[in-house]
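[audit] Reproducing an earlier prediction to check determinism. Same input, same settings, fresh worker. If the tokens differ from the archived copy the diff job will pick it up downstream; this log only records the rerun itself.
[audit] input (137 residues):
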Amino acid sequence: MNLIKLFSKTTGFFETTSHMAFAISEDSSGSSKAWQISWGKGVSVNLKVKKLLKKKGFGNIKYQSPHEEHGHFVVRGFWVVVKCSRNQANQEYVSYGMGADQGSYQHAEEKALLNLRHYDTDWNDSYGYSISRKGIF
């Protein structure tokens, strides 16, 4: 199969697949300043979440989705955003993770921690975390 056909099939999958987008705005040290979540179909939901953060005046936006293992392709269920705030180089360092699950908040929280670990490789259990926000979709 040539690359153009493969790209077309892959792009088509992401254009019709429902998922949630989660993005954060970082400062120059990599600490998160804000987060945004949105739902939709295809890659347009990624553009939407970035646009919403920009509209709020934030820049340096990074996507933290979509990841199937973190529940980002769940169509209906529970979502949780976790926050870690710690001292790093004499400054507050903040990171977020988002997870979703069809069954429970507890499973969504576990997936949010996986998402947090994926993007904040220095995070460990000793830093702790808090629930920034949670909901049902």
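[audit] rerun output stored. Observation attached for the diff report: The first strand starts at residue 18 and ends at 26.
[audit] end
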